[in-house]
Protein backbone atom coordinates (compact mmCIF):
# COMPACT_ATOMS: atom_id res chain seq x y z
CA UNK A 1 0.00 0.00 0.00
CA UNK A 2 1.42 3.43 -0.98
CA UNK A 3 2.68 5.55 1.92
CA UNK A 4 0.59 8.57 2.88
CA UNK A 5 1.88 12.11 2.42
CA UNK A 6 2.44 12.50 6.16
CA UNK A 7 4.43 9.26 6.33
CA UNK A 8 6.66 10.38 3.47
CA UNK A 9 7.20 13.80 5.11
CA UNK A 10 8.22 12.11 8.37
CA UNK A 11 10.70 9.86 6.54
CA UNK A 12 12.20 12.85 4.70
CA UNK A 13 12.62 14.79 7.95
CA UNK A 14 14.16 11.78 9.72
CA UNK A 15 16.60 11.14 6.86
CA UNK A 16 17.62 14.80 6.79
CA UNK A 17 18.50 14.61 10.50
CA UNK A 18 20.55 11.48 9.87
CA UNK A 19 22.31 13.22 7.00
CA UNK A 20 23.21 16.14 9.25
CA UNK A 21 24.66 13.80 11.88
CA UNK A 22 26.75 11.78 9.40
CA UNK A 23 27.91 15.01 7.74
CA UNK A 24 29.11 16.34 11.09
CA UNK A 25 30.83 13.05 11.87
CA UNK A 26 32.55 13.19 8.49
CA UNK A 27 33.99 16.62 9.27
CA UNK A 28 35.15 15.47 12.71
CA UNK A 29 36.88 12.44 11.18
CA UNK A 30 38.50 14.66 8.55
CA UNK A 31 39.93 16.91 11.28
CA UNK A 32 41.22 13.87 13.19
CA UNK A 33 42.75 12.49 9.99
CA UNK A 34 44.64 15.71 9.27
CA UNK A 35 46.14 15.77 12.74
CA UNK A 36 46.93 12.06 12.69
CA UNK A 37 48.70 12.35 9.33
CA UNK A 38 50.88 15.10 10.77
CA UNK A 39 51.69 12.96 13.81
CA UNK A 40 52.65 10.09 11.52
CA UNK A 41 54.99 12.36 9.53
CA UNK A 42 56.60 13.63 12.71
CA UNK A 43 57.13 10.09 13.94
CA UNK A 44 58.82 9.10 10.68
CA UNK A 45 61.46 11.77 11.26
CA UNK A 46 62.12 10.36 14.73
CA UNK A 47 62.09 6.76 13.46
CA UNK A 48 64.67 7.52 10.79
CA UNK A 49 67.03 9.06 13.35
CA UNK A 50 66.65 6.15 15.78
CA UNK A 51 67.18 3.65 12.98
CA UNK A 52 70.32 5.45 11.80
CA UNK A 53 71.80 5.48 15.29
CA UNK A 54 70.87 1.86 15.99
CA UNK A 55 72.26 0.64 12.69
CA UNK A 56 75.50 2.51 13.23
CA UNK A 57 75.94 1.03 16.70
CA UNK A 58 75.41 -2.55 15.57
CA UNK A 59 76.84 -2.27 12.06
CA UNK A 60 79.68 -4.70 12.68
CA UNK A 61 77.42 -7.14 14.50
CA UNK A 62 75.05 -7.30 11.54
CA UNK A 63 77.80 -8.57 9.29
CA UNK A 64 79.67 -10.72 11.80
CA UNK A 65 76.73 -12.05 13.82
CA UNK A 66 75.43 -10.83 17.16
CA UNK A 67 74.93 -12.33 20.59
CA UNK A 68 72.19 -9.85 21.47
CA UNK A 69 68.91 -11.78 22.02
CA UNK A 70 66.93 -9.05 20.25
CA UNK A 71 68.81 -9.83 17.03
CA UNK A 72 69.14 -13.61 17.22
CA UNK A 73 66.69 -15.83 15.35
CA UNK A 74 65.70 -18.80 17.48
CA UNK A 75 63.56 -21.85 16.70
CA UNK A 76 59.93 -20.73 16.52
CA UNK A 77 57.79 -22.66 18.97
CA UNK A 78 55.21 -19.93 19.52
CA UNK A 79 54.42 -16.69 17.68
CA UNK A 80 53.05 -13.46 19.11
CA UNK A 81 50.62 -11.26 17.16
CA UNK A 82 49.63 -7.70 18.07
CA UNK A 83 46.34 -7.07 16.25
CA UNK A 84 45.24 -3.43 15.99
CA UNK A 85 41.56 -2.58 15.46
CA UNK A 86 39.21 0.20 16.52
CA UNK A 87 37.15 0.32 19.72
CA UNK A 88 33.93 1.15 17.89
CA UNK A 89 32.24 0.69 14.55
CA UNK A 90 31.19 3.29 11.96
CA UNK A 91 34.53 2.85 10.14
CA UNK A 92 33.39 0.89 7.10
CA UNK A 93 35.40 -2.26 6.41
CA UNK A 94 38.38 -1.15 8.52
CA UNK A 95 38.00 -3.85 11.18
CA UNK A 96 36.63 -6.65 9.02
CA UNK A 97 39.52 -6.32 6.57
CA UNK A 98 42.30 -6.79 9.12
CA UNK A 99 40.45 -9.43 11.16
CA UNK A 100 39.69 -11.51 8.07
CA UNK A 101 43.36 -11.34 7.04
CA UNK A 102 44.54 -12.34 10.52
CA UNK A 103 42.15 -15.30 10.71
CA UNK A 104 43.32 -16.51 7.31
CA UNK A 105 46.96 -16.17 8.38
CA UNK A 106 46.36 -18.12 11.60
CA UNK A 107 44.63 -20.89 9.65
CA UNK A 108 47.48 -21.09 7.13
CA UNK A 109 50.41 -20.89 9.53
CA UNK A 110 49.22 -22.71 12.66
CA UNK A 111 47.60 -26.03 13.46
CA UNK A 112 46.46 -25.22 17.00
CA UNK A 113 45.97 -22.24 19.32
CA UNK A 114 48.92 -23.24 21.50
CA UNK A 115 51.22 -22.12 18.69
CA UNK A 116 50.38 -18.41 18.92
CA UNK A 117 49.57 -15.57 21.32
CA UNK A 118 47.09 -12.79 20.52
CA UNK A 119 47.59 -9.29 21.91
CA UNK A 120 44.62 -7.08 21.00
CA UNK A 121 44.69 -3.30 20.70
CA UNK A 122 41.09 -2.19 20.26
CA UNK A 123 37.80 -3.52 21.56
CA UNK A 124 36.49 -4.73 18.21
CA UNK A 125 39.41 -7.11 17.77
CA UNK A 126 39.35 -8.33 21.37
CA UNK A 127 35.61 -9.08 21.21
CA UNK A 128 35.99 -10.73 17.80
CA UNK A 129 38.58 -13.23 19.02
CA UNK A 130 36.76 -13.93 22.28
CA UNK A 131 33.53 -14.65 20.39
CA UNK A 132 35.42 -17.36 18.48
CA UNK A 133 36.97 -18.86 21.62
CA UNK A 134 40.43 -17.59 20.69
CA UNK A 135 42.36 -16.69 23.81
CA UNK A 136 43.43 -13.03 24.04
CA UNK A 137 46.43 -12.87 26.34
CA UNK A 138 46.44 -9.09 26.69
CA UNK A 139 44.18 -6.32 25.46
CA UNK A 140 44.02 -2.54 25.48
CA UNK A 141 40.84 -0.56 24.92
CA UNK A 142 39.94 3.10 24.90
CA UNK A 143 42.91 4.55 23.01
CA UNK A 144 42.54 8.25 22.31
CA UNK A 145 42.21 9.54 18.75
CA UNK A 146 45.85 10.70 18.86
CA UNK A 147 47.50 8.10 21.15
CA UNK A 148 50.68 9.02 22.98
CA UNK A 149 53.40 6.55 23.83
CA UNK A 150 52.44 6.78 27.51
CA UNK A 151 48.98 5.39 26.63
CA UNK A 152 50.40 2.26 25.00
CA UNK A 153 53.63 1.99 26.99
CA UNK A 154 52.38 -0.81 29.25
CA UNK A 155 51.19 -3.19 26.55
CA UNK A 156 54.12 -2.38 24.24
CA UNK A 157 56.64 -2.95 27.03
CA UNK A 158 54.81 -6.15 27.94
CA UNK A 159 55.01 -7.44 24.37
CA UNK A 160 58.76 -6.89 24.19
CA UNK A 161 59.22 -8.35 27.67
CA UNK A 162 57.34 -11.53 26.69
CA UNK A 163 59.69 -11.97 23.75
CA UNK A 164 62.76 -11.39 25.90
CA UNK A 165 61.47 -13.98 28.39
CA UNK A 166 60.93 -16.42 25.48
CA UNK A 167 57.19 -16.80 25.96
CA UNK A 168 57.12 -16.52 22.17
CA UNK A 169 59.91 -16.53 19.62
CA UNK A 170 58.63 -14.04 17.04
CA UNK A 171 56.45 -10.95 17.28
CA UNK A 172 54.34 -9.54 14.46
CA UNK A 173 52.12 -6.46 14.30
CA UNK A 174 48.96 -6.78 12.18
CA UNK A 175 47.23 -3.54 11.18
CA UNK A 176 45.81 -1.41 8.38
CA UNK A 177 48.48 0.81 6.83
CA UNK A 178 47.29 4.26 5.78
CA UNK A 179 47.95 4.96 2.09
CA UNK A 180 45.62 7.90 1.52
CA UNK A 181 42.17 9.09 2.55
CA UNK A 182 40.51 6.45 0.37
CA UNK A 183 42.92 3.54 0.60
CA UNK A 184 44.51 1.38 3.27
CA UNK A 185 46.50 -1.85 3.06
CA UNK A 186 46.74 -4.78 5.45
CA UNK A 187 50.25 -5.10 6.85
CA UNK A 188 51.81 -7.85 8.92
CA UNK A 189 55.25 -6.62 10.03
CA UNK A 190 57.83 -8.62 11.92
CA UNK A 191 59.03 -6.62 14.91
CA UNK A 192 61.06 -9.22 16.81
CA UNK A 193 63.66 -10.46 16.40
CA UNK A 194 64.94 -7.29 14.72
CA UNK A 195 65.85 -8.39 11.21
CA UNK A 196 65.14 -5.38 9.00
CA UNK A 197 68.37 -3.49 9.72
CA UNK A 198 70.85 -3.40 6.85
CA UNK A 199 74.56 -3.28 7.58
CA UNK A 200 75.07 -1.10 4.49
CA UNK A 201 73.03 1.64 6.16
CA UNK A 202 75.73 1.95 8.79
CA UNK A 203 78.08 3.32 6.12
CA UNK A 204 75.62 5.81 4.71
CA UNK A 205 74.50 6.99 8.15
CA UNK A 206 77.83 6.66 9.94
CA UNK A 207 78.07 8.82 13.02
CA UNK A 208 80.88 9.23 15.52
CA UNK A 209 79.53 8.45 19.01
CA UNK A 210 81.28 8.63 22.33
CA UNK A 211 79.96 5.55 24.10
CA UNK A 212 79.51 5.47 27.86
CA UNK A 213 79.65 2.99 29.54
CA UNK A 214 80.09 0.60 26.55
CA UNK A 215 78.42 -0.55 23.33
CA UNK A 216 76.90 -3.76 24.75
CA UNK A 217 75.27 -2.02 27.70
CA UNK A 218 73.86 0.70 25.47
CA UNK A 219 72.48 -1.85 22.98
CA UNK A 220 70.84 -3.80 25.80
CA UNK A 221 68.78 -0.66 26.49
CA UNK A 222 68.51 0.71 22.96
CA UNK A 223 67.25 -2.36 21.06
CA UNK A 224 64.14 -2.93 23.21
CA UNK A 225 63.36 0.79 22.92
CA UNK A 226 63.87 0.58 19.15
CA UNK A 227 61.38 -2.30 18.93
CA UNK A 228 58.91 -0.45 21.14
CA UNK A 229 59.14 2.68 18.98
CA UNK A 230 58.46 0.64 15.82
CA UNK A 231 55.37 -0.92 17.42
CA UNK A 232 54.20 2.55 18.46
CA UNK A 233 54.71 3.74 14.89
CA UNK A 234 52.40 0.97 13.68
CA UNK A 235 49.75 2.11 16.16
CA UNK A 236 49.94 5.68 14.86
CA UNK A 237 49.70 4.40 11.29
CA UNK A 238 46.69 2.22 12.15
CA UNK A 239 44.92 5.13 13.88
CA UNK A 240 45.45 7.28 10.80
CA UNK A 241 43.88 4.56 8.63
CA UNK A 242 41.00 4.30 11.12
CA UNK A 243 40.22 8.04 10.85
CA UNK A 244 40.38 7.85 7.05
CA UNK A 245 38.00 4.87 7.06
CA UNK A 246 35.63 6.71 9.40
CA UNK A 247 35.63 9.77 7.16
CA UNK A 248 34.95 7.69 4.03
CA UNK A 249 32.17 5.72 5.76
CA UNK A 250 30.42 8.87 6.95
CA UNK A 251 30.76 10.49 3.54
CA UNK A 252 29.17 7.42 1.94
CA UNK A 253 26.38 7.48 4.54
CA UNK A 254 25.76 11.19 3.90
CA UNK A 255 25.64 10.66 0.13
CA UNK A 256 23.24 7.73 0.54
CA UNK A 257 21.00 9.81 2.80
CA UNK A 258 20.86 12.56 0.18
CA UNK A 259 19.89 10.01 -2.48
CA UNK A 260 17.13 8.67 -0.23
CA UNK A 261 15.86 12.21 0.37
CA UNK A 262 15.75 12.88 -3.38
CA UNK A 263 13.83 9.65 -4.01
CA UNK A 264 11.39 10.38 -1.17
CA UNK A 265 10.88 13.94 -2.45
CA UNK A 266 9.98 12.62 -5.89
CA UNK A 267 7.65 10.08 -4.28
CA UNK A 268 6.06 12.83 -2.16
CA UNK A 269 5.52 15.12 -5.17
CA UNK A 270 3.92 12.32 -7.18
CA UNK A 271 1.65 11.37 -4.29
CA UNK A 272 0.69 15.02 -3.77
CA UNK A 273 0.01 15.46 -7.47
CA UNK A 274 -2.15 12.34 -7.47
CA UNK A 275 -4.06 13.64 -4.44
CA UNK A 276 -4.66 17.01 -6.12
CA UNK A 277 -5.79 15.31 -9.31
CA UNK A 278 -8.18 13.14 -7.34
CA UNK A 279 -9.63 16.21 -5.60
CA UNK A 280 -10.12 18.03 -8.91
CA UNK A 281 -11.80 14.95 -10.38
CA UNK A 282 -14.18 14.73 -7.43
CA UNK A 283 -15.02 18.46 -7.65
CA UNK A 284 -15.70 18.22 -11.38
CA UNK A 285 -17.82 15.10 -10.87
CA UNK A 286 -19.81 16.80 -8.12
CA UNK A 287 -20.39 19.91 -10.23
CA UNK A 288 -21.56 17.77 -13.12
CA UNK A 289 -24.01 15.98 -10.89
CA UNK A 290 -25.63 19.28 -9.90
CA UNK A 291 -26.28 20.35 -13.48
From TrEMBL:
<comment type="function">
    <text>Produces ATP from ADP in the presence of a proton gradient across the membrane. The gamma chain is believed to be important in regulating ATPase activity and the flow of protons through the CF(0) complex.</text>
</comment>
<dbReference type="Pfam" id="PF00231">
    <property type="entry name" value="ATP-synt"/>
</dbReference>
<keyword id="KW-0139">CF(1)</keyword>
<dbReference type="GO" id="GO:0005524">
    <property type="term" value="F:ATP binding"/>
</dbReference>
<keyword id="KW-1003">Cell membrane</keyword>
<keyword id="KW-0375">Hydrogen ion transport</keyword>
<keyword id="KW-0406">Ion transport</keyword>
<dbReference type="InterPro" id="IPR035968">
    <property type="entry name" value="ATP_synth_F1_ATPase_gsu"/>
</dbReference>
<keyword id="KW-0472">Membrane</keyword>
<dbReference type="GO" id="GO:0045259">
    <property type="term" value="C:proton-transporting ATP synthase complex"/>
</dbReference>
<dbReference type="InterPro" id="IPR000131">
    <property type="entry name" value="ATP_synth_F1_gsu"/>
</dbReference>
<keyword id="KW-0813">Transport</keyword>
<dbReference type="GO" id="GO:0046933">
    <property type="term" value="F:proton-transporting ATP synthase activity, rotational mechanism"/>
</dbReference>
<dbReference type="InterPro" id="IPR023632">
    <property type="entry name" value="ATP_synth_F1_gsu_CS"/>
</dbReference>
<dbReference type="GO" id="GO:0005886">
    <property type="term" value="C:plasma membrane"/>
</dbReference>
<protein>
    <recommendedName>
        <fullName>ATP synthase gamma chain</fullName>
    </recommendedName>
</protein>
<dbReference type="GO" id="GO:0042777">
    <property type="term" value="P:proton motive force-driven plasma membrane ATP synthesis"/>
</dbReference>
<keyword id="KW-0066">ATP synthesis</keyword>
<comment type="subunit">
    <text>F-type ATPases have 2 components, CF(1) - the catalytic core - and CF(0) - the membrane proton channel. CF(1) has five subunits: alpha(3), beta(3), gamma(1), delta(1), epsilon(1). CF(0) has three main subunits: a, b and c.</text>
</comment>
<comment type="similarity">
    <text>Belongs to the ATPase gamma chain family.</text>
</comment>
Amino acid sequence: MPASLNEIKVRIASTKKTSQITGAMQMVSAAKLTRSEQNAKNFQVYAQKVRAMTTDLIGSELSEGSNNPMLIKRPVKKTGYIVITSDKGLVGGYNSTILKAVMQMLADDHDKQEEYVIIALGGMGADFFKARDINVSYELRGLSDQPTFDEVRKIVNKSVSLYQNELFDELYVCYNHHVNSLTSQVRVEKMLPITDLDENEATSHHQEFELEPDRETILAQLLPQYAESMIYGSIIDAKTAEHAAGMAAMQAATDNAKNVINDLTIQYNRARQAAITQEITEIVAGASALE
